[in-house]
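Subject: two folds for Thursday's group meeting

Dear M.,

Sorry for the delay on this. The cluster queue was jammed most of the week, so I only got both jobs back this morning. I'm pasting them in the order they finished. Each block is the input sequence followed by the predicted structure tokens. Could you check whether the formatting survives your parser before we put anything on slides? The first protein is the one we discussed after the seminar.
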Amino acid sequence: MPYQNLAEAWEADQFAGLRDRLKAIRDDARSGGEDYRILMPDSEKPYNRLSSWSSWLAQYGRFIAGEPPGAAKDADRIRQHVLEQYIEPAREEGASHVDVLVRDVNTALNLNEAWPNICQALAGKIFQDLAQVSAPERIGADQSSATVFRFGLDEPMASQNERPFTLFDSAGNPYQPVKNFNRSNGVSAYRIKPKGAGNKADEAIETKDMVDVARAMLVDGLASRVKAIAGGTVNYLTYGGEKLVRYQLDADIAKKIGVPASGSVQEPTKQVENTMAIAQQDERPTATSLILYGPPGTGKTFSTAAEAVKLCGEPVPEDRDELMAAYQGLLAAGRIEFVTFHQSMAYEEFVEGRQPMTGADDGEDTSSGGFRLETVPGIFRRIARRAEVSRGTVSAETKLSLEGRRVFKMSIGAKYLPEDAPLFEEAIEKNCAIFGFYEFDLSDPRFGTREAIHAAAEARRKEDPEAFVSQPASMMTNLFRNSLKVGDVLIVTKGNLLVRAIGIVEGDYEFSPIEGRAGDYAHRRAVNWLWVDRDGIEASDIAKVGLVQRTIYEIDKSSLNVPALERYMNSQQNEGPSEPEPFVLIIDEINRANISKVFGELITLLEPDKRLGQPNQLKVRLPYSGDEFGVPSNLHIVGTMNTADRSIALLDTALRRRFTFREIMPNPAVLKEAAARTGIDLPTLLTIFNERIEYLYDRDHQIGHAYFTGCDTRADVDQVMRHKVIPLLAEYFFEDWGKIAAVLGDLDTHDGPIEGGFLNRSVLKAPPGLDNGEAMQRFRWDVRDDGFDYARLLGS
């Protein structure tokens, strides 16, 4: 190569030429050539070393590009191990493909249950470029120890000409990426070639809209990294042949094209795969654990709404009504949960516990008059489960909704019958819904009504007295065969309390007997399973009312939490690595509960480095269910604490290392508008109050601005003072009315009656026998009956 050192090679083309040359030498060696002896004169098996050199160049390129050191350590080990131990040996043997079992990689590298990390490393574009393979076929379970990746070794890599779009300049020439290119260089418009168009300039679409350009770059991909688009400036970098795209977008542009405001995407090869996936696949989300603390009325609870919306990755509107609408939408979708702690709060309510259940579940005797103890997950475990199974969001163009669809609940195999367990797995594997009851073929068009189905069942009963027939069975069979339409949604339950799959019907009725089971469970409908979780999530997450035991029935949409159901329908649609959706748990008044009693072992699991997917991830076995449990990294926790209720020092030891504490104090400045409406200088009033409270008591018992923000008239301020502020001061100072009067500006140094702006003082007469001049002087304080006078307080 013509370079004196690696610095020159990087400056020239970011090592692309060097890596191409190493690949050419490797290909030459496979065909019997000896070009490799330029580098290794005595080697007889150069393939692995040549692959290693290519990998080292890629890693060094990432270092030069400024990626954080050590961030991809495990991922690089995984890729290198699979390349050297699987890909290269299989190529040397002339194999057409090679299978990689995730469990074997985890064991060989002595990793700690790093199934998701291994899957992400092997499914990504970085490994495909490194090993010169196409995207693998995924076999078996998703992101588990049993996942198998099958890499084809005789498939040619897609050429750069197969990109699904090209960017043209204003002259119609294909755009060549350069550094620091912007509109001031003379480009007045961009031309974007749509998918399927040819390479001629006249087939491109001209646009001056940066939104269109951004969508083309981000959604369709580009052989470069977009460093910035906001303001019309586009900077391009390429390195190591890895063709990654990183971006930072203006918030409005990001909202219009339906992508996060910042992130990374990958250049597609043979097809557009997961275009919004994180390019650096080993960057793990950092969990936020935050407590907002301060005196009452400072807006802590309201601040949690803005904080939660921001942590969910959504824009935070400045308008209060718009903010609360965004918050309520995320709350309805299950992305945010809100809980208030109290003195009776327990581990069983927060994490999991046993609760008595009456009635029946699938397979149980409905006539039983007793009850059973059922392990029920608490609010924390439910939202943690939602966060754990999320794979991210989909684009606005591909997002599914319930509009125009009916929703049906369906059971596939009874929960308590072991012989039925394979039915659900077969349904998922074969992308179909499986229905039981009658064992005869219903494909004939004459079975288009419930009456015809029931008549056929009755006719079979006459031939065989043991043949099954019932009106409910005929009704549900008719639902499955005739009422269920293509496009309808199926919710598959696990018992009556859990949901384990959601799908969309894609085909008409079919009769397909299972081998060895005659006509039993032979009725099928093709289904696209959108979401699957074999352990199941609480049915209450998506249904407002309890689901019942019937095998199949239509659910009225008014009985469903539609936003939550739609989120589940879209949450597993990203194939391959992707950034999961953020979830937020808000704990109001976190200091009112016994923290060690409520959190239990979660105190340890909440630490950021011990979350799932982190270097020091921990799991514990829960006492009631016996399940292994860890806290996902995409679950954020925001708490509030009223410092007037309990000292923060009582929480420091337990929570200081796990939580970030942010103080929220009274802000008189926000009362300027209320002051203009009421004619009272509320900012000054609040400042005086709090200075005096801090002098007489402490800074944790100040009065928050929220008490006055809703005041529109002087009468409103009087009501707040009479019914909220003065009673609060009485509580603070334990009915010491002298101190209360001092805060209100009504205390004088003399011992006579006082007519103050808020309080009146009268002198109490000593009882007979104590009026000889030796009795202590005592006073009665009364709150004024008429309107308050603020002049003395504000003028002092």
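Second protein, same layout:
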Amino acid sequence: MKYTFILLIICLLSHNYLVAQSKIHSAVKIDINLSKEIAPMKPIWAWFGYDEPNYTYMKDGKKLLTEIADFSKPVPVFVRAHNLLTTGDGTAALKWGSTNAYTEDANGNPVYNWTVVDSIFDVYIKRGMKPLAQIGFMPEALSVKPQPYRHTWQPGQPYSGIFTGWAYPPKDYKKWGELVYQWVTHCVKRYGKKEVESWYWEVWNEPDISYWKGTQQEFFKLYDFAADGVKRALPTARVGGCDATGGAMKFLDAFLRHCLRDTNYATGKIGAPLDVILFHAKGAPRVIDGQVVMKIGSQLKNINDHFNVIRAYPELKNIPVVIGESDPEGCAACGMSTNPENAYRNGTMYSSYTAASFARKYALMDSLNVNLIGAVSWSFEFENQPWFAGFRDLATNGVDKPVLNVFRMFAMMKGRRVEVKSNRMYGLRTIVDSSIRNQTDIGAIAAKDSRSASVMVWNYHDRDEQGVAEEINIQVKGLPSSTVTLKHYRIDNEHSNSYEVWKKIGSPQSPNATQIATLEKAGQLQLVKDPETKKIQNGNLSVPIILSRQGVSFLYFSW
């Protein structure tokens, strides 16, 4: 009897503790004030990129691009791809692509062939997309060290193996500049002056590391001749650089100084064209005690540090800035079997990370007064690869992964961003300096236009594990109508999640037609329940939700 009584007391204490914990979890409050506008809801999310340009016109590549273009309308999506000038037969492979745009005849005369690169750009233009046209890499006939040229890298092999003859300077910079001139001239003839004026051209990729096998000054020379070729072909074209890596602030600074103050290698005048500034920003996940632990702060610090370099030049205040690659880590083609730290990519962690990180990109843009216009998610699709192999991609074998639905959410956010306050959202400086290491980050970003308002809410943590779903009370102020229609979308283990459905049907590597149809449906953005009509009191509405760890909710109000 005595022991039964003690056990009862322990149970009661445990119950009281759980109730107390439940009350703690239920204390999350997010206030949305539609009357306090911050800035335009720039579509910085509508930028994507990938290493393998030949996937563009393949079956699943075209399908994914069609989806992205359709849900983004009327916002034009910009697409950046490597290897647009690389020599080869157009066969796609991991971290490789080619167009054979430039070869030379027996006498060393240039031979231009735009067939493959046209087939890439045609896919974009047909869908209303815009090239962020990367001028690179070095054609074999121009490289100072052409052999070996075609790499055969596979995941798990040393990354250094990819840097072959395409990464070297040209043997003739005038021929290099003429190649760019001929390419832009061809694009103007094919697509029209007005269309090409709406693109951006950017020279090379990550010249501060082995993507460029020349010196810093040789890169500046490469840039000058390329930019001169662009402007000779179309003076109103927009060109820039330099897409340095996340920690390469000194390189970016030297590049900006060169463009503003140095003698131009191509023209002999002071300065070089600079219509857009680009750099990269990456996180740094690791496996700790058997679990993936992200480092969102590393990516945001890259952005913060590069913004500060740009801000040091007052004459660049209004120049558009693009984060040319903006991702949780560095290698899209490194699957989770060879790189276990990338196991976050199939499920909801990639989704919540994307939501939480993009909100901070807007906040950094605001706090540092930088004209950020785009953040390229270096993630596309990998044709004819195993299902859910853990590549950093938006779809697998034509089936959308959960992360793509975050971009569907962003596409519905119109008008102007408005004030958001949350008692569980990490402060900007804290997350930049320390990432997310204690309680989860429960925050939101919100926008409104004349007939709608939208709120994206996430429950994110750097450690990839499941946790207690938390009650969140969302208070929306300033609604201008007496009634609104509320649509509540969700990404979690039960909604908008093809990966969880794939596991439930046995993780097939050769799914049949019925299974594929099921997976395709599961990959779309899903409502939590049917749309509801809500009555508004004095412009205010309270919306309680329950959101699991790594989940993302999206509330869309229309009137």
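Two things I noticed about the second structure. Residues 192 and 289 are 56 Å apart (CA to CA). The chain has two domains: 26-38+415-558, 42-411.

Cheers,
T.
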